[in-house]
Write a structure and sequence with these properties.
The protein has about 270 residues and is of the alpha+beta class. It has six helices and 14 strands. It folds into three domains: about 70 residues, GCC-box Binding Domain, CATH 3.30.730; about 90 residues, no CATH class; about 90 residues, no CATH class. Helix content is about 30%, strand content about 30%. The radius of gyration is 27 Å and the shape is elongated.
């Protein structure tokens, strides 16, 4: 076998070739290849990246490579920063870059390094997510951004770069279901709406948390009046069950919304009779 190559077999007995390299006492798998020669060329390419420091990081974006791009980034980060990640992560000064492709780089704070070194970012229909405990979890959820949130309305990027996911760049406007922040000179208020065959205004509140509880109360009342819909509700941190219950009981909802619910209930009763 050529250097860096060893023969392997699939379950059906078909032969293929695997390539690997050792650098700084770490054994690194480079992938599987159809021929011994290609596997060896992958080994030579990895050796060039790791042992020849004259190969600048930016050069790899224009050079054709046998290794997949993710592996190239992993090798260069290991060479330059002495830490090996299986995911395509490259450490910068006070932040790191996760490469989705040669032209798309996500910027993250160092605080997120442990998480993304063990969670691969995937994309489907424009949404970025990771697999966490068998579930698809949006990476925006780490910032308190809900799945229904709309960029520009519920959150925005301070520097207008949607690939810059550092905490200081993400400004969350509306954190809770059904709650929209209304800014006016000198004060802010929070409008609550619930969607039942259209949007119905529940009320406007001065505190965001109070608005979030008002939405929960609106959902509870909708269900008691026969509305069969799978509503999402808000979870509020920092409130004891007693504190939450006291606020819940004090919150008033709009008379128009309560009248609408009564109409639903009356119509439902008439239909049954």
């Amino acid at each position: 076998m050529l250097p860096g190559v060893y023969l392997a077999r699939k379950k059906d007995g078909t032969s293929y070739y695997r390539s690997s390299i050792t650098f700084q006492n770490k054994h690194i798998s480079l992938g599987s290849f159809a021929s011994e020669q290609t596997a060896h060329e992958a080994y030579q390419e990895a050796a060039c990246l790791l042992f020849d420091s004259s190969t600048a990081f930016d050069d790899v974006f224009s050079l054709p490579t046998i290794l997949n791009f993710d592996k190239v980034i992993s090798l260069l980060n290991f060479r330059d920063n002495h830490i090996y990640f299986k995911n395509p992560i490259y450490l910068r000064n006070n932040y790191f870059v996760y490469y989705l492709s040669q032209t798309e780089e996500l910027k993250f704070d160092i605080d997120d390094l442990f998480y993304y070194s063990s969670h691969k970012i995937m994309r489907r229909q424009g949404h970025l997510f990771v697999s966490d405990y068998g579930m698809q979890v949006s990476i925006l959820s780490r910032y308190g951004i809900k799945s229904h949130a709309v960029a520009g309305r519920d959150y925005y990027f301070a520097n207008e770069d949607p690939l810059d996911l550092r905490y200081s760049n993400i400004i969350v406007i509306n954190r809770y279901y059904g709650v929209t922040k209304i800014s006016s000179p000198g004060s802010d208020s929070y409008k609550v709406q619930i969607h039942i065959n259209g949007n119905y205004t529940v009320g406007t509140y001065q505190k965001e948390e109070k608005a979030a509880i008002a939405y929960n109360k609106a959902v509870d009342l909708a269900k008691t009046h026969g509305v069969q819909k799978n509503f999402q509700t808000n979870y509020l941190e920092g409130y004891s069950p007693r504190e939450y219950a006291e606020l819940y009981s004090q919150i008033k909802l709009s008379k128009k919304y309560l009248h609408y619910l009564q109409t639903i209930s009356d119509n439902s009763g008439a239909a049954k009779s």
